[in-house]
Amino acid sequence: MADQIRVLIVDDIPETRDHLAKLLGFEADIEVVGAAASGREAIQLATALAPDVILMDINMPDMDGIAATEQLASQAPMASVVMMSVQGEADYLRRSMLAGAREFLVKPFSSDELTSSIRQVYTREREKQSRIAVQPGGSGGSTTARATGDDRENAEPGRIVAVFGPKGGVGRTTLAVNLAVAAATELGQRTCLVDASFQFGDVGVLLNLNPKNKSIADLIPELEAGEVDSLDTFIINHSAGIRVLLAPPSPEMAELITPGAVKRLLESLRQSHDLVVVDCMSSFNDTTLAILDLADTVLTMLSLEITSIKNIRLFLEVAQQLGYGADKIRLVLNRADSSLGIRVADVEHSIGRRVDHTIVSDGRSVVYALNRGVPFFLSNREAQVSQDVLRLASAVAGARTADAGDTSRKATQKKSLFAWR
Ligand SMILES: Nc1ncnc2c1ncn2[C@@H]1O[C@H](COP(=O)(O)OP(=O)(O)OP(=O)(O)O)[C@@H](O)[C@H]1O
Ligand SMILES: [Mg+2]
């Protein structure tokens, strides 16, 4: 049958494996391709069977589900992990999130919860891949001439604004692109947009650019060697007024980008730009951490969905452990007016702090712009969503925080955070 979701079950208890396989056997669009009894076996089977989704138990002998998930990120990057955990294991949930799991199911779960989680992560992953596959071949509205007149020779280093969200699909790329355009066109900031969603970056799709021509992948050897001489050669000057460094053209190249390389890249970019906007991935790995550490401001995006709110709560705890000051993290509620039964006040109550910025939902402007490869900030400048983005751009373009660059304290805290793994 076409389009079946290939699922690998990983659990050390044979009865659980059988039970899950039976439940999934009733679903026409899901095929169980294998079952593993340990983390190690899961990795072997995942590389051999190429499943779309891996249902992963946390507690297993030999290698547990969290360690296996971490390894799968590099050995089977196309597979999305759905972690299964028993109630009360909040710490496990947090560690799973850091390891890269895409969903969590708390045992006992219903068959509906199981199948809808599998479908959701599969659809989300497939959408990302197809958006990359259908992007136009040319370099679209870009010009590739080297930027001239870098009049920032003796200027202060620019600000680094990371657009982050511990849950995928919350609007990070949409905001990052339009924020950069707003800062460049309305605030006169020399702005560079970096697609740091290194595996499945979408910035090229939104700006009608092809990473095959130029991307961060071309800079990896230089970044590793510590001499970033040809940065300008691989940054695209886009007709929207911004400069863009795209993510690699294929997901496996993401592994080659180290935290040290990212740090060197951003340090170098901030010397030649007023503003560096970084579209981060949602998985909280060591490269993301390097970006967040270096950022002056972390725009942390959330939506009015219970899973998004849960992840924000977890992220705020982690941010506190990392020593990020309260001003560094700015909460941005996207699609703030969508009425889904959760109110902004409920969100604020649940996470214990106020939302700093809101952006309205405007499917028409956003999707129209997406399909044309032109940022909505340019195609629909008067829309409320554009005004919200401009307000946010004005706020971050002027804001600096005291704790950016305080590396020694954070280095110690980071070590203890990753000692969990
Ligand atoms: N304010 C908005 N109003 C309406 N639609 C929006 C808004 N913001 C984002 N969207 C839509 O939501 C979807 C997800 O947005 P986007 O790709 O920017 O999210 P993301 O967090 O970068 O996702 P990913 O995890 O895939 O990187 C897109 O279809 C986008 O058009
Ligand atoms: Mg994105």
Care to give the gist of this entry?
This protein has 421 residues and is α/β, with parallel strands linked by helices. The protein has 17 helices and 14 strands. Adenosine-5'-triphosphate binds next to helix 6 and helix 14.
Polypeptide structure, described:
The protein has 421 residues and is α/β, with parallel strands linked by helices. The protein folds into two domains: 129 residues, 3-Layer(aba) Sandwich (Rossmann fold), CATH 3.40.50; 277 residues, P-loop containing nucleotide triphosphate hydrolases (Rossmann fold), CATH 3.40.50.300. It is built from 17 helices and 14 strands. It has a nine-stranded mixed sheet with strand order 6-9-10-8-11-7-12-13-14, with helices on both faces. Strands 2-1-3-4-5 form a five-stranded parallel sheet, with helices on both faces. Helix 2 runs parallel beside helix 3 and helix 6 crosses helix 16. The structure holds adenosine-5'-triphosphate and magnesium ion (MG). The site of adenosine-5'-triphosphate has 22 residues, from helix 6 and helix 14.
CATH class category name of the largest domain: Alpha Beta
Strand order of the largest sheet: 6-9-10-8-11-7-12-13-14
Kindly state the number of beta strands: 14
The total count of helices amounts to 17
Mean pLDDT: 84
Ligands, ions, cofactors: adenosine-5'-triphosphate, magnesium ion
Low-pLDDT windows of residues: 135-149, 400-421
Large-scale geometry: globular
CATH topology of the largest domain: Rossmann fold
Number of domains: 2
**The CATH superfamily title of the largest domain:** P-loop containing nucleotide triphosphate hydrolases
| Class derived from helix and strand content | alpha/beta
CATH architectural arrangement of the largest domain? 3-Layer(aba) Sandwich
Helix content: 40-55%
Strand content: 15-25%
- Rg value: 21 Å
Largest pleated sheet = 9 strands, mixed
State the end-to-end CA separation.
39 Å
